Amino acid sequence: MSPTEAEGFCKGVSRPESQLVERLLRSLSSGPRAFIVDKKLDDYQSLLKIINVSGAGRLLQVSDLGNLVVIYIDRQRLEKACSYEECGAKSDPVERNLCAKECGARRISEVFQAIVRDLCEVLSS
User: Fold this and answer.
1) Nearest alpha carbon to residue 61 among 79, 88, 43
2) What is the 8-class DSSP label of residue 101?
3) Are the CB atoms for 6 and 51 separated by under 8 Å?
4) Is 99:87 a contact under the CB 8 Å cutoff?
5) Are strands 60-65 and 34-38 parallel, antiparallel or unpaired?
6) Helices 93-124 & 18-28, crossing angle to 10 degrees?
């Protein structure tokens, strides 16, 4: 286990589901910001319950592909919010879409931090 893995996102939490949540958060924090769950190997139902109870489900997209489930940050929802909040004044649809994509890219770290906060709160309660 690397030092980063040992530290974890939800410090001091030792619930059985915490390892799966930590893996989810590590995957969402880098690269394509997606996590793949094998239903045969992982307790997917517990993870989904934690996601829903925490409220993080409003920020995540869950795609069930049979034995695999892909969980990722919902960029479309983020860009849509940006389109209304920051880019609504732009009359040109192309400009508005570009503005929404740029805004979404800027705000993805904020969204990730909100997901970490919400999931860790549920695990520590």
Assistant:
1) 79
2) H
3) no
4) yes
5) unpaired
6) 160
